[in-house]
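Entry:
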Amino acid sequence: MNKPVLFRVTNNLKIGGIQRRLRALLPLLMDDYDVHIVTYKDKGVFFDELAELGVKTHFLPRKGHWNPVAIWKLARLFRKHGADMVHTHSFGGNIFGILAAALARVPVRIGQVHLCELHWNGTSALRRKKQMLEERMVHRLFSHKVLFVSRESRDHFQKHTGLPDVMLTVLHNGLALPGAVAPAPRTELGVPENRKLIGFVGRISRGKGIERFLDIARQACGQAQGRFHFVVIGDGDGVPRHKKWVNEHGLERDVTFLGERHDIHRCYAALDCLVFCSDPGIEGMPGVILEACAHGLPILALRTAPLEEIRDYYTRIAYLDESAPAARQLEMTLALPPADQAALRGEFSIEAMKARTISLYEELTRQAQP
């Protein structure tokens, strides 16, 4: 008996949160589905890797999510392979992919939203309003379900589209959560052996809170000299500017920029604490936090709705208090007792996500049958 044909549609397969989830999940779905993935902006490092693992990969460049020629080509691809289900990602993928799936008469059509306020990324309020109306129309007319990685992203989306509850479902991210990992040696990272290592992990971009992290470093190093060392793990256009700020404040011996690392779990294992400073509304369900939880790290974070959601499953999280000394907050976070990870892994492991995804697919397939 042939397996049902599943297509996922996303903009690229570079190293990023959404892409890493797809890299982990799609090979696990191959026992139950004939799995395809389409990218339309870039291929990315996981494109060939997924192909080597048996996922069928397709690159279909397009100009704009309403481009009729690109939509027709994608619909033709769905028809060629007999797609039974199309699952799209993010604003551009949701418009482009769902329209093509409807044109190809694919029986099950699913969109997914990963972010909250940044999901509609137009450069003006008018442009973002237009994007909201576009996506509302496409999902209302052609989608069977829209998935969200957190309650906050679902509620934000519903507020601005008015789509009914029955169309909207929270499906938490799943990660390939590591077991015991040997930490990267301090000598390899170029950091002191005798200090508590406090980390920032993420893209150096708007809303990610690197400025807040560096200010915490400045305060803590002034309050407890020689006690902490801070590392920034990630890359972005703003790195030179932030390095200049560090030098101007005399912190070059206290802050190390490690750049983008492909051995991220060895880096997590080397940390004593993670500081997470993303602005409210920026993250859907932050994979950095889930990865740090899987390593058992204490986490000092800016309070946001997704963090509250994660804290239901992992208690070793403290919230930033701007009125309290930074060094004292770090010490109190480091002193948090270890957390039982059973609940975390039961909700956020890639195996749990696989089971929930297949269950949802089967339910929607039953509903689509005459």
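The first helix runs from residue 17 to 29.
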